From TrEMBL, chain A:
<dbReference type="Pfam" id="PF00528">
    <property type="entry name" value="BPD_transp_1"/>
</dbReference>
<dbReference type="InterPro" id="IPR051204">
    <property type="entry name" value="ABC_transp_perm/SBD"/>
</dbReference>
<keyword id="KW-1133">Transmembrane helix</keyword>
<keyword id="KW-0813">Transport</keyword>
<keyword id="KW-0812">Transmembrane</keyword>
<keyword id="KW-0472">Membrane</keyword>
<dbReference type="InterPro" id="IPR035906">
    <property type="entry name" value="MetI-like_sf"/>
</dbReference>
<protein>
    <submittedName>
        <fullName>Osmoprotectant transport system permease protein</fullName>
    </submittedName>
</protein>
<feature type="domain" description="ABC transmembrane type-1">
    <location>
        <begin position="27"/>
        <end position="216"/>
    </location>
</feature>
TrEMBL record, chain B:
<dbReference type="InterPro" id="IPR000515">
    <property type="entry name" value="MetI-like"/>
</dbReference>
<feature type="transmembrane region" description="Helical">
    <location>
        <begin position="41"/>
        <end position="60"/>
    </location>
</feature>
<dbReference type="GO" id="GO:0031460">
    <property type="term" value="P:glycine betaine transport"/>
</dbReference>
<keyword id="KW-0472">Membrane</keyword>
<feature type="transmembrane region" description="Helical">
    <location>
        <begin position="72"/>
        <end position="91"/>
    </location>
</feature>
<feature type="transmembrane region" description="Helical">
    <location>
        <begin position="198"/>
        <end position="219"/>
    </location>
</feature>
<dbReference type="GO" id="GO:0005886">
    <property type="term" value="C:plasma membrane"/>
</dbReference>
<keyword id="KW-0812">Transmembrane</keyword>
<dbReference type="Pfam" id="PF00528">
    <property type="entry name" value="BPD_transp_1"/>
</dbReference>
């Protein structure tokens, strides 16, 4: 197939990698966008979700925010932000054109998985463990830092992992609405019927996505206090859907 | 100055006014909006059904051969990791600039969620129920169709709802290859700075997601009458 030849020619031409709108610069830009948005979502989402989970309150909100987030097309939100008078398509330093609009959209879409998973992580700490900690005379803060957080950490990290995937995908879509990042290579290629270029961009985006996912999976394994890695059977992770994570409210804490 | 702008009574979607919410746009461009919505629903439904058709045998295979389970889950998770805007172009050399490209891409995403919920659902069937059924003389096929699947239905339906809602949202990205349903209108709205078109199409996407979700909830209630009393 000819497009594969075109793709290979595009990728193997060093000139396409360097310069202001080369692959390397756009890749750096998209990584910067992704990490910034993820960090902002963590700063906002983690304290709220962990605290609510610790108290056992606001479960309905914490769990349904993911359902609402899924229903809103990332493309539509990006488009609305870009066409609106603010934030619009203004340049934002290293974040490129429509940088602020993209950052806002990325952060918003990173929040639901972080909030839902962190909340569920706190709630899924076995009640007898929680009782035992209470019986030992631990204060609320001690229980949170020494019992609930370490036990819930793998699930919290799996939420971050899901958020990372989501943010990377959304950052790519930003190019459909004249935003920054690697998606520009894809949309530009398709817009100009230069499919080899578009597919080359897609290949780079997909490869980086897989590398990021792999790194996140390793991070998740590293924080598992039981050190048995990620079990395959019967274990809930961020992508699996169970009745419990969907519609059962958390049990009230006594 | 465009002709629209010079009209005696500029409509709310003229270049001069360019309102976000504009009923006149909806009535004037009704056919366009209906066509886009029909395409959107079509792509979504076909993708989810295709995803389900592939997910079902995969889940059964993963359950029969536990050594394959980790591989199947790893591959589907890998696919899920690839952004939609990158997955569609990667399919283009095989399927061209067609609706098939979008449908296959979306089916692959739906598949990831559905395989997991099918496995989770089948696992949620209590062992003693399975044993009783075997004791009553159910063979493997009958056990699956008459006992396990109905009992797995609540979890499977939960996965189907997640898959459907995310597919509705992701279909918009198909506008890259001109088959994005309402996404085509969103893209056009961005390119031409047409706020009414952009806003109406975005709103319809969200409404569509909630309508399809409500239909699935209804279907679940009809299919699992025994859970009604318990849930309350």
């Amino acid at each position: 197939m000819r497009v594969f030849g075109d793709m290979w020619r595009y990728l193997s031409d060093g000139a396409n990698w360097t310069g202001g709108d080369g692959i390397a610069a756009l890749l750096g830009q998209q990584l910067l966008l992704t990490l910034t948005a993820l960090l902002m979502a963590m700063v906002v989402g983690l304290p709220i979700a962990l605290w609510l989970g610790h108290l056992g309150r606001g479960g309905f909100l914490a769990i349904n925010i993911s359902n609402v987030g899924r229903a809103i097309p990332t493309f539509a939100l990006l488009a609305l932000l870009v066409v609106a008078p603010w934030p619009g398509t203004d340049q934002l330093g290293p974040y490129g054109r429509a940088g602020l609009a993209t950052l806002i959209a990325l952060t918003l879409f990173a929040l639901p998985p972080i909030i839902t998973n962190s909340y569920v992580a706190m709630r899924e700490v076995a009640p007898e463990v929680r009782e035992a900690a209470r019986g030992m005379g631990m204060t609320g803060a001690q229980r949170f830092w020494q019992v609930e957080l370490p036990l819930g950490l793998p699930l919290v990290v799996s939420g971050l992992r899901l958020a990372l995937v989501q943010v990377w995908a959304t950052a790519t879509i930003a190019a459909l609405v004249a935003g920054p990042g690697l998606g520009q290579i894809i949309t530009d290629g398709f817009f100009r019927s230069n499919y080899g270029k578009g597919i080359a961009g897609a290949l780079v985006v997909a490869a980086v996505a897989l590398v990021l996912e792999l790194l996140a999976a390793l991070a998740q394994r590293a924080v598992d206090p039981t050190r048995r890695g990620t079990p395959t059977g019967g274990h809930t992770d961020a992508l699996s859907v169970t009745g419990a994570t969907l519609d059962e409210p958390a049990e009230p804490v006594g | 100055m465009t002709i629209l702008g010079a009209a005696a009574e500029p409509s709310c979607y003229s270049r001069l006014v360019n309102d976000w919410i504009c009923p006149a746009y909806v009535t004037d461009r009704q056919q366009e909006i209906v066509d886009a919505t029909v395409q959107h629903v079509g792509i979504t439904v076909v993708s989810v059904v295709l995803g389900l058709l592939i997910a079902f045998p995969l889940a059964l295979l993963a359950r029969r051969l536990p050594r394959l389970e980790a591989t199947i889950l790893a591959i589907t998770t890998g696919i899920y990791t690839v952004p939609s805007l990158a997955l569609f172009p990667l399919l283009v050399p095989f399927t061209g600039l067609s609706a098939t490209t979008v449908v296959i891409g979306l089916a692959l995403y739906a598949l990831t969620i559905l395989v997991r919920s099918l496995l989770e659902g089948l696992r949620s069937v209590p062992d003693d129920v399975r044993e009783s059924a075997t004791g009553l003389g159910y063979g493997r096929g009958a056990l699956l169709m008459k006992i396990e699947l109905p009992l797995a239905l609540p979890v499977v339906m939960a996965g189907l709802r997640v898959a459907t809602v995310s597919t509705v949202a992701l279909t918009t990205v198909g506008s890259l290859v001109a088959y994005g349903g309402l996404g085509n209108l969103i893209k056009d709205g961005v390119l031409t700075n047409f706020r009414a078109e952009l806003f109406t199409a975005s709103l319809l996407c969200v409404v569509l997601a909630f309508v399809l979700d409500a239909l699935l909830v209804l279907a679940q209630r009809l299919l699992t009458p025994w859970t009604r009393g318990v849930r309350a």
